[in-house]
Amino acid sequence: KQEVTQIPAALSVPEGENLVLNCSFTDSAIYNLQWFRQDPGKGLTSLLLIQSSQREQTSGRLNASLDKSSGRSTLYIAASQPGDSATYLCAVSVWNGNKLVFGAGTILRVKS
Amino acid sequence: DTGVSQDPRHKITKRGQNVTFRCDPISEHNRLYWYRQTLGQGPEFLTYFQNEAQLEKSRLLSDRFSAERPKGSFSTLEIQRTEQGDSAMYLCASSLSGGNNEQFFGPGTRLTVL
Q1: Which of B35, B45, B55, B103 to mutate: most A Cβ within 10 Å?
Q2: Are B20 and B76 in contact (CB under 8 A)?
Q3: Low-confidence spans in chain A with pLDDT less than 50
């Protein structure tokens, strides 16, 4: 059974700091990996998707990497801003039907 | 197209009542997923459809839950005889099979069972 773990559970940083969020998964047979952002009481916004054959993806100040063999992904956020404050969720897609298995998330607070 | 929509956004009901939620996916997407999220946790998979066929159901989906996607477009999720433990955010997502199958989520329906 696929399990996804995110570390840390919560993170508080001053504005402008670069930061790394970690995600690990137990079964390396994944189809892809997605990082999402969730604001309180809201739905999920897709940030980045990395296919199983890829090593990283970049979008603006965000960079996500994937090491499938070791079951790890990281989300790097450069020059953090207060507007980045949210919960960040990592999810892996299984091959059959591509349902997503989520971690519990990292709650990020960026202080101005 | 403005993305995945869900209705209602909030639902408060009394224990024992039936509730129904609706999800409208992105129009060209043939896959539709339902997830449930409780406070402080990541979403958990409930069920998914490819076109009108329901292809997988989680063990979380007890016999009080039923989902349909009759014409391969919108979907409904019904919960019968609601219990306080059903209180959660119910999220719908859609995707296009093949390719990278990126899932796009709606805003969710927040259910509170009193």
Answers
A1: B103
A2: yes
A3: none
A59: exposed, middle or buried (Cβ count in 10 Å: 0-12, 13-18, 19+)? exposed
Task: Pull the structure tokens for residue A2.
Answer: 């696929």
Query: With an 8 Å Cβ cutoff, are A44 and B56 in contact?
Result: no
Q: How high does pLDDT run on average in chain A?
A: 95
| Mean pLDDT value across residues B18-30 | 96
Q: Kindly state whether B25 is in contact with chain A, defined as any CB-CB distance less than 8 angstroms.
A: no
What whole-number distance in Å separates Cα of residue A4 and Cα of residue B76? Answer: 28
**pLDDT reading at B61 higher than 90:** no
Cα-flanking dihedrals φ and ψ of residue B40, to 5°? 80, 5
Report the candidate in B86, B87, B81, B92 with the shortest Cα–Cα distance to residue B22: B92
Name the token pair of B40: 């402080």
Helix extents (H) in A1-112 = none
**What amino acid is encoded at B61 in this protein?**
L
The verdict on a CB contact (< 8 Å) between A43 and B31 is no
Per the structure block, which two tokens stand in for B31? 């896959």
